[in-house]
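Q: How would the structure tokens look for this protein?
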Amino acid sequence: MVQNITSKITIIGAGPAGATLALFLAKYKIPHLLIDQASFPRDKICGDGLTCEVPRILRELDESIYQEFINADWVKPSNGAYIELKNGQKTSFESENFSRNTSAVFVAKREIFDNWLISKLNTEYTQKIFSFKAESITRIGDLVEITGNQNGETITIISNLIIGADGERSIVRKTFHPKGIKKKENTVLLLLDVITKE
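A: Here is the predicted structure in token form.
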């Protein structure tokens, strides 16, 4: 059995990037489809450190979501961090005086943080298909066809626009940029030694 779905906008990957994009699209009442090969909650062994961009973006999205994040007991402000750039420049900072409102770095388990973002999705504008593994992406004129599998059932998605938010092994990148995408020289390479407050 093959299920056919159409969507003007399809986001592949429901981690923090994809879920946040879905939240912003819903904020502006733009219907879209969000797909991910996992179901939530799911653990992710990476990216537990959250920079100051996270609360800034959440506040831009919705003040109540920001307040819930900043006061959540599963979010810990950090006492400091060490950052190294590709060009060899290094910097670090630490302080015993950082609080939830002044820390530049936070720590939260991805299993909790990602699932929390998913719980904020507005189903009026966000259609979700989880446990769906995208297996191929094909251009069909001005459209894109995504074919994959969900619990043994083949699903075909036809979309005007796809957005790859599916991480390091992105099927979107492999399909459209098989040689990779050149990064800027000064992108952050490491964010290490994050020390959380107990």
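The first strand starts at residue 2 and ends at 12.

The mean pLDDT is 84.

Upvote if useful.
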